Hints:
Blueprint (H helix, E strand, L loop, with lengths): L5 E6 L3 H12 L3 E7 L16 E2 L2 H6 L6 E4 L6 H10 L3 E4 L7 H14 L3 E3 L7 H12 L5 E9 L22 H4 L2 H11 L2 E9 L12 E8 L4 E7 L8 E8 L2 E6 L5 E7 L13 E4 L2 E5 L2 H12 L9 H16 L1
Parallel strand pairs: 1-2, 1-4, 2-3, 4-5, 5-6, 7-10
Antiparallel strand pairs: 7-11, 8-9, 9-10, 11-12, 12-13, 14-15
Helix pairs in contact: 3-4, 4-9, 5-7, 7-9
Amino acid sequence: xxxxxxxxxxxxxxxxxxxxxxxxxxxxxxxxxxxxxxxxxxxxxxxxxxxxxxxxxxxxxxxxxxxxxxxxxxxxxxxxxxxxxxxxxxxxxxxxxxxxxxxxxxxxxxxxxxxxxxxxxxxxxxxxxxxxxxxxxxxxxxxxxxxxxxxxxxxxxxxxxxxxxxxxxxxxxxxxxxxxxxxxxxxxxxxxxxxxxxxxxxxxxxxxxxxxxxxxxxxxxxxxxxxxxxxxxxxxxxxxxxxxxxxxxxxxxxxxxxxxxxxxxxxxxxxxxxxxxxxxxxxxxxxxxxxxxxxxxxxxxxxxxxxxxxxxxxxxxxxxxxxxxxxxxxxxxxxx
Length: 336
């Protein structure tokens, strides 16, 4: 694959799927060869793409179009099933978060990928934001010393402008829960920095989503890190009118840090022994979904990593086992 473009097809042409298609189209070493969605093409706002359009993965594969990678950007509940279908067809996959809604299904995807010798790229694009890259280096370098405490706060607004009648958002079967759809990126960052958790204790409530969703809108979760230290996650989608913040505060042996903003995209506090804070590159603005903003716009890094891996230039940034661990941690939090 070193001397030709990597061929992609995108399944699911909603907000995130369009983002995938755009980033593939912009990448000089990539080629978009098909778009797939159950809705009619005329309703999706993808008229700028002249590639073939299909209503199912099966129809696409029956057309025998040459493709290397299937990007799965459908509702959460379809991720595992469609991943297995694409892997069975011997294609690499890029799967949006979460890669499944339970650990067992995520394990099936990984097992199938190993069987057919194909890559699974788990999309966790917030890892690419400058504050995330910076804090990862700080933790791994040992400059912070022992980690004592970590607090993750995720306070967003998701009301009837987001949970619309007939939408998959809010469905237990297709959405999975607040931690899966809204805040899994931040749980991934926590796992990436500090590793696995145990001794989990959770408390959950549904303050103002009883008529909108099948699950909780708020929670307090405490735990210990397997590698040492303790942590907590406080989250809610019941914030009035607009997002408040997503922040992480770290109390460590040699100093304290807080990264905040709506998507943990700003360094709000840094005081570390014998350390001078560097100037970080600006963070890309968040995706604008009408009244809502999502995670930082870093999907171009995801596509670049896929190309680099398939051309033998780099390792996977977020591998399937890390995607599995995020699913496993969320499942254990809910079971607590």
